[in-house]
Write a structure and sequence with these properties.
The protein has ten helices and ten strands. By secondary structure, it is of the alpha/beta class. Strand 7 (175-181), helix 8 (187-193) and strand 8 form a beta-alpha-beta unit. The radius of gyration is 16 Å and the shape is globular.
Length: 232
């Protein structure tokens, strides 16, 4: 049985996967949704340790697929690097990724970095990034916009300033980079740069809210690949 560890992105919570989880379970998979929203001035490495702790709860009786959305692409790669024997596949969903030392502020354009620093200094006491509007995640319909507006939380700035610590073990784990179209950032190129096969999915950045069914199908399909080949 496949276990999916679904890791939410910045400003979000485990609830981001609420529409995907029942679909994966109906397909026979198990799911875990660790919460990166611990209060306090946490950083990327703290979030990676939270994911490692979730991985460690999984009994090794099937495949484990580690899924990271957006910022969590960096988190899951650091966590997988710490537990390479436990993780069978990594999936990035519009995820940021890069080599050792990469972080949000090394991968994102300078305009993004400057804007984040400014808003954190002005509205977050230099430590927290207030949640952007739902439109920033490509969500414009009223119901999903209301959902996001009510649940998005400030993000610690350290999660964006810290760079990943990778030994190279993660590079031995096969991966898939799902990138949403039309894209806002080159998530397909981030995936290709770390050796992952890429798959396109039409939808906004928060595609798990708007198109959970095709996303769940793509996650199940990704679970059938190891070392670039479909398992039979």
């Amino acid at each position: 049985m496949t276990t999916f560890v679904l890791v939410h992105g910045a400003w979000h919570g485990p609830w981001a996967w609420d529409r995907v989880v029942p679909l994966l379970r109906a397909a026979g998979a198990r799911t875990l949704t660790p919460d990166l929203g611990t209060p306090g001035n946490r950083g990327l490495h703290d979030d990676a340790r939270t994911v490692v702790a979730a991985i460690d709860t999984v009994q090794q009786e099937g495949d484990l697929v580690l899924v990271g959305h957006s910022y969590a692409g960096l988190v899951v790669r650091e966590a997988a690097d710490a537990r390479p024997d436990a993780v069978g596949h990594i999936v990035l969903v519009d995820g940021w990724a890069g080599p050792d030392g990469s972080g949000m502020f090394t991968l994102a354009p300078s305009t993004f970095v400057d804007a984040i620093r400014a808003v954190a200094e002005t509205f977050g006491h230099g430590q927290r990034i207030p949640a952007p509007s739902p439109e920033a995640f490509g969500i414009v319909d009223p119901d999903n916009s209301a959902l996001l507006a009510a649940r998005l939380l400030p993000q610690p700035l350290r999660t964006f300033t810290e760079g990943t610590r990778l030994t190279g073990a993660v590079d031995q784990i096969p991966g898939t980079a799902i990138h949403c179209r039309p894209g806002t950032y080159p998530f397909d190129r981030f995936g290709e740069a770390v050796g992952y096969r890429t798959r396109a999915l039409d939808g906004p950045h928060d595609v798990m809210l708007t198109r959970p069914e095709p996303l769940a199908r793509m996650l199940m399909e990704s679970a059938s690949f190891r070392n670039g080949k479909r398992r039979v």
